[in-house]
Amino acid sequence: MNSQAGATDVLVLGGAGVDTIIHVPELPLPYADSYMIDTGIRTRAGQTGDFVALGLAALGLRTHHLDLLGDDPEGDLVRALHREHGIGLTALPQPAGTKRAVNLVGPDGRRLSLYDTSRARPGDRFPADLLRGLAGASRHVHVTITQPCGDALPVLRETGLPLSTDLHDWDGENPYHEPFAHAADVVFLSAAALADPERTMRRIAERGRAEVVVATAGAEGAHLLADGELVRVPPVRPPAPVVDSNGAGDAFAAAFLYGRLSGEPPHRCARYGAIAGAYACTVPASRAKALGQEELLKRAAEPRP
């Protein structure tokens, strides 16, 4: 590590962008020529890397975010989000534009995301020297699966820093996700697309470097694999009505990493993650808000029902 080691707790790599939120009467949405959206159509900054960074910063961790952004209104929204929440940002120019998506949100909080894949180029890369410098000033690196993060994995592994990643709704087979799954020390993923979560989790641990694998399962809680033992993480009752599940997995990851960097055992980290994930489901999709450290610790100290 260089002389700046420890200046940042977590470097978040990739996943900066904007979402356009549309609340629809049901999902899947039946075909129709048009729909009237009485709640409005809103665009706000906040994709997976933004939300992880936001969650980490809200918990008091010094956080820095690195990604490519366009010189466009979407990029301005991302920059403003980081300024407002005191999150360090290194934004490299992206001529193709800032990443963006459209989220259709149903009445029960479930969502369907449509990603604009035109806003990336095959030759996109993070400069190796920049990566080494930012990583060397950090305690931990969280790597999103957006481009061009996969190409950064060899450089990050050379630093010897612990890595985490979120595979989201990986089916356990898509080869794109495998380098992330095998390079990270802590792996998060959703159980939604997994026929056999335990099998996939154990395969990640056996084939890669993962010390901990967590598969979140929404209202059913999560599965935690640590030290070869698979345990169920009980769900946490949301503190208010569920309005949107968007960002719940990112909040889980941020709170889990907070626990890990605080020296907590995996089961305690997972408890933190479940609390933060449940809270995130109560935040409207049009807002960017994360659970703070004081409230997290207060809820974690409460007896379980």
Account of the 3D structure:
The protein is α/β, with parallel strands linked by helices. It has nine helices and 13 strands. The strands form two sheets. The protein has a nine-stranded mixed sheet, sandwiched between helices. Strands 3-2-6-7 form a four-stranded mixed sheet. α1 packs across α7 (248-261) and α8 crosses α9 (293-301). The relative contact order is 0.15.
Which structural traits does this protein have?
single chain; 305 residues; alpha/beta; four-stranded mixed β-sheet; 13 strands
Summarize the entry for a quick read.
This protein is an alpha/beta fold and 305 residues long. The chain contains 9 helices and 13 strands. Helix 1 crosses helix 7, helix 3 crosses helix 4 and helix 8 packs across helix 9.
Q: How many E strands?
A: 13
Order of helices and strands: EEEHEHEEEHEHEHEHEEEHHH
Give the N-to-C terminal Cα separation. 45 Å
Give the number of helices: 9
- Compute the average pLDDT: 93
Shape: globular
Helical content band: 25-40%
% residues in beta strands: 15-25%
Gyration radius, rounded: 18 Å
**Uncertain spans:** 1-5
Structural class: alpha/beta
Major sheet size, sense and barrel closure: 9 strands, mixed
Trace the largest sheet across and list its strands.
5-4-1-8-9-10-11-12-13
